[in-house]
Amino acid sequence: MKQWQEFGARQSDIRVSENFVCAADELGLILVNGADAGDFLQNQLSNDIGFIDESHSQLSSYSTPKGRMLGIFRVVQISNGYILITAKAMVLPLLETLYKYIVQAQVTLADASDYFARIALQTDLAEVIEHPQLAAQPGAVLQNDSVISLQLDPLGSQRRYLVMCLSADAAIELWNGFAKQLQVAGFSSWRLAEIKAGMPAIYPQTAEQFVLQMANLGVLDAVSFKKGCYPGQEIVARMQYLGKLKRRMFLARLETDSLPLPGDELVTRGKTEIDGSGKVVDAEFDQDGICHCLYIAQISKATAGSLQLLKQPQTTIQNLDLPYSLDN
Fold first, then answer.
1. Between the CA of residue 245 and those of 16, 85, 212, 239, 279, what are the distances in Å?
2. Can you tell me the distance from the alpha carbon of 14 to that of 33, in angstroms, rounded to the nearest whole number?
3. DSSP SS3 for 194
4. Cα angle, residue 208 at apex, residues 216 and 252 outer, rounded to 5°
């Protein structure tokens, strides 16, 4: 996909909050195929793989036996297996871990990031929404010989799509059509949209830090509490049925000129050393220079407004409403 990568590198990298298209090569792809691919994923991921088909995608996660998440995925079933969409920086470490569990199963794992050109777009324009190459509903997948498109949950009135193309020529043709109607933006615009949508991501800095319920995956339909065992299942089930959730993910607006990074520590106000209060999940600036942040922290401290960034103690943290209910 060198042609596509060179094409994408020449595009604008501005930040935009609505009606934009951007290259999404910072998303990585893991291909899982073979006769036992479905059973393999069923035994490894938090969600029930049996509830998706080639026309519907699924949010899921992968954890250690201690219940700490190693990755979060959008799962797409294709004709010869499955594609797991995740942060590109996580592809190789996830492959290394997944390989250990293949044993004698008929499963092949591969980094498929270079097989597809990736495009992300967000819009409320009817002429774009009705494009024949875009999936028609949230959660839906549209597939043909050269294109796979997913529609994700909307952000306000804006519908959100991921498009994967096997051909660079097909991707550029689609891009040029979208670019006539949408603003061309950088991937930071998509990352900002995911943050505003309350969608967590795992990066190398935050791998093995969170149980899935802490990242709100229990209310985002990313876990099945009825399926069989998978790594961390006992921890997840115990927290669901016997425990009390003491940490969860919050969306906030930060008044800062310095972008926090995934894994940056939050501490009790006035503290100057790590005290286990919380961590940044992800953060990004909008076009006005306002920082939006997802963080996981002790609920009591976050709701009381008694947290600060360890590296930026003067930064104001203003919690915002998430676009989904935590009571689902």
1. 35, 28, 11, 7, 16
2. 37
3. helix
4. 40
Instruction: Calculate mean pLDDT across residues 117-130.
Output: 97
Other CB atoms within 10 Å distance of the CB of residue 304: 11
Cα–Cα dist 114/168, whole Å: 11
pLDDT digits (tens, 9 = 90+) for 250-287: 999 999 999 999 999 999 999 999 999 999 999 999 99
Structure tokens at 147: 């294109």
- Cα–Cα distance for residue pair 79/240, rounded to 1 Å: 35
Alpha-carbon distance values, 37 to 5, 50, 85, 101, 148 (Å):
30, 12, 16, 12, 19
H-only helix segments in the chain: 2-9, 37-42, 91-99, 126-129, 168-179, 187-196, 233-241, 299-304
As for how many domains the chain has, the answer is 2
Residues 193/31, Cβ–Cβ less than 8 Å = no
- Residue 158 included in any domain: yes
Q: Could you write out the DSSP letters of every residue in 9-63? A: HTS-----SSSEEEE-TTEEEEEEESTTHHHHHHTTBSS-GGG-BTTB-EEEEEE
Beta-strand relationship, 183-184 and 20-23? parallel
State which residues form the domain around 251.
Answer: 246-322
pTM of the predicted structure, to 2 decimals? 0.96
Residue 298 pairs in a beta bridge with 247
**Per the domain annotation, does 235 fall within a domain?**
no
* Secondary structure letter of residue 235 according to DSSP: H
Q: Please check whether residue 43 lies inside any domain of the structure.
A: yes
Q: What is the CB neighbour count within 10 angstroms for residue 156?
A: 12
Q: Do 189 and 314 belong together in one domain?
A: no
Residue 103, class by beta-carbon neighbours within 10 Å (0-12 exposed, 13-18 middle, 19+ buried)? Answer: exposed
Tokens of 233: 């299942």
**% of the chain beyond a pLDDT of 90:** 92
